Amino acid sequence: MERIFRCVLIILVAAMCASAQDLATVERQVEGLRTQLQEATDKEAALRERSQQLEEEMEPQNIERSVSTIGTTDVKALRDRRRLQLERQKAQVDEQLTSLAASRSRLEGAIATAEAEAVRLRAAALAPKSTPPAQTETGGLSTKPITPARPAVKKKRDAPKPVKRVRRSRAKRRPA
């Protein structure tokens, strides 16, 4: 009997250590996700700053100033080329911002899920173990608590309700 008690005690201690390791793993995962979120936020701020800078450079007077130092006979073509170059750069930055926004929302969701899992693991570790583990058919221990079987309740079939027939009275013909 004492030997069985020791085995059960060892199994319970091992299970508690495994849940503590799971909790530590989940907490490390949350920390890694938060780091990724911070990096994404920093990169997003830098891209927003670059986008504003490109907006300023795309103003006509700034384009004119940037091409004024280049000697050419076709200034209009040079201005158009510079404007197109800035528009392409702005489109790339906007695309990166969109991608980062999607990534950020995905990271926030993953953080929320991982934090919820950590809370669940903490609660499971602190919860009182009032019910002993149940034996399965194979003789191993199950982590599911034993629930009493419910008695089967038969549902009554709804019988069709009788249809009431209503007689319509015929209008009596009056002699004319």
Descriptive notes:
With 176 residues, the protein is mainly alpha-helical. The protein has one domain (2-128): Orthogonal Bundle (Helix Hairpins). Helix content is 66%, strand content 2%. It contains 3 helices and 2 strands, in the order αααββ. The protein has helices spanning 2-57, 60-67, 75-126, and strands at 134-135, 141-142. A two-stranded antiparallel sheet has the order 1-2. β1 and β2 form a beta hairpin. α1 (2-57) runs antiparallel to α3 (75-126). The longest helix has 56 residues, at 2-57. The protein is flat and about 95 Å long. 2% of the residues are buried. The mean pLDDT is 76.
Summarize the structure.
This protein is mainly α and 176 residues long. It has helices at 2-57, 60-67, 75-126, and strands spanning 134-135, 141-142.
Gross CATH architecture: Orthogonal Bundle
Strand content: under 5%
Task: Tell the overall outline.
Answer: flat
**Cα distance spanning the termini:** 110 Å
Helix content: 55-70%
Count of extended strands: 2
Question: CATH topology, what is it called?
Answer: Helix Hairpins
- CATH class, named Mainly Alpha
The biggest sheet amounts to: 2 strands, antiparallel
List the main descriptive attributes of the protein structure presented here.
176 residues; mainly alpha; 66% helix
Question: SSE layout and pairings?
Answer:
Elements: H1 2-57, H2 60-67, H3 75-126, E1 134-135, E2 141-142
Antiparallel strand pairs: 1-2
Helix pairs in contact: 1-3
